[in-house]
């Protein structure tokens, strides 16, 4: 079991115990913390917490977190749209609705399940049994290029390029509103949303630097077709950045409150271009994922 022990500071005084712990531990959801409190697993000054309470400066909060059982991730014969493959890496054009790696509620039907079958288990092990081969990811409802690594040497090489922001990642997107400038840069830090831990937000206080370059591909009545290039790679970066400048992505049900007149499943965002230095040859390699059918059809309608 992992043991947690905190002394409450003045900044958190009079905060509700569940909100306090959620602020202190990013990896735990509020609902999980509330369940621990309900089970009387959280102690304040040695006594189990019963129901909701507010903490005071100097209070000692303790609880034991049981280690989660790692589920068995099974290979599944799921068709893959392979853009490039060799003995080191594989680049896949991920479809809409597919989760990249297993997580709570999604232990089958993921890209990892498909890769385990296709590669016969031959994937890098650096990210453990849940995320074998996975060196980066895109959202469930974002389509396009994802690279996976077949050995640890390739994984370390690609991971270092991602860290240095030298991997070229160009996305195509459709946003609400008509973007006036032909091109622009959004340079705003991104971090957890201050009140909704499941969302990201422009966060000047606690966010990490995030930079998105964009250029207009075509303007329509009320919408703009864009190419967005990532300089950094924060969670939901393009979605958060475009929403922050008043142009949320069409179909984005998380970062936009604008209704879509089209029948869409999530944001119109496609990881089109992925470029990197090959881990064995050092040569620059670039893949181009064709736009999915729904995206092409939507452009024709617009």
Compute the number of strand runs. Answer: 15
What's the average pLDDT?
91
Overall body shape: globular
Largest sheet: 9 strands, mixed
Written overview of the protein:
With 302 residues, the protein is of the alpha+beta class. The chain is built from 6 helices and 15 strands. The chain has helices at residues 17-24, 30-38, 111-118, 152-163, 237-244, 293-301; strands at residues 2-7, 42-44, 47-48, 60-65, 82-85, 89-94, 143-149, 168-176, 183-187, 190-192, 200-202, 211-219, 223-230, 269-277, 284-288. It is globular, with a radius of gyration of 22 Å. It starts with a strand and ends with a helix.
Topology diagram in text:
Blueprint: E1 2-7, H1 17-24, H2 30-38, E2 42-44, E3 47-48, E4 60-65, E5 82-85, E6 89-94, H3 111-118, E7 143-149, H4 152-163, E8 168-176, E9 183-187, E10 190-192, E11 200-202, E12 211-219, E13 223-230, H5 237-244, E14 269-277, E15 284-288, H6 293-301
Parallel strand pairs: 7-14
Antiparallel strand pairs: 1-4, 2-3, 2-4, 5-6, 6-7, 8-13, 8-14, 9-12, 10-11, 12-13, 14-15
Helix pairs in contact: 1-2
């Amino acid at each position: 079991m992992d043991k947690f022990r905190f002394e409450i500071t003045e900044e958190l005084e009079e905060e509700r115990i569940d909100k306090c712990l959620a602020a202190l531990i990013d990896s735990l959801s509020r609902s999980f913390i509330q369940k621990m409190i309900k089970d009387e697993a959280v102690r304040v000054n040695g006594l189990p917490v019963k129901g909701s309470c507010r903490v005071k400066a100097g209070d000692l909060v303790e609880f034991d977190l049981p280690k989660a059982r790692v589920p068995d991730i099974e290979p599944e014969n799921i068709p893959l749209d392979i853009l490039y493959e060799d003995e080191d890496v594989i680049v896949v054009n991920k479809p809409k609705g597919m989760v990249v790696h297993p997580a709570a509620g999604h232990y089958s039907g993921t890209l990892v399940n498909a890769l385990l079958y296709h590669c016969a288990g031959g994937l890098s092990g650096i990210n453990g049994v849940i995320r074998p081969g996975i060196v980066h990811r895109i959202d469930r409802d974002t389509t396009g290029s994802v690279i996976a690594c077949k050995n640890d040497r390739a994984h370390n090489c690609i991971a270092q390029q991602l860290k240095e922001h030298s991997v070229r990642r160009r996305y195509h997107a459709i946003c609400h509103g008509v973007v006036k400038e032909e091109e622009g840069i959004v340079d705003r830090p991104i971090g957890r949303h201050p009140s909704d831990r499941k969302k990201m937000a422009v966060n000047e206080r606690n966010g990490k630097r995030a930079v998105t370059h964009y250029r207009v591909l075509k303007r329509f009545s009320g919408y703009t077709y864009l190419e967005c290039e990532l300089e950094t790679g924060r969670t939901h970066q393009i979605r958060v950045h475009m929403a922050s400048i008043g142009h949320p992505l069409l179909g984005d049900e998380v970062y936009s409150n604008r209704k879509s007149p089209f029948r869409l499943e999530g944001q119109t965002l496609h990881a089109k271009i992925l470029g990197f230095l090959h881990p064995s040859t050092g040569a620059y390699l670039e893949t181009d994922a064709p736009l999915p059918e729904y995206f092409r059809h939507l452009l024709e309608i617009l």
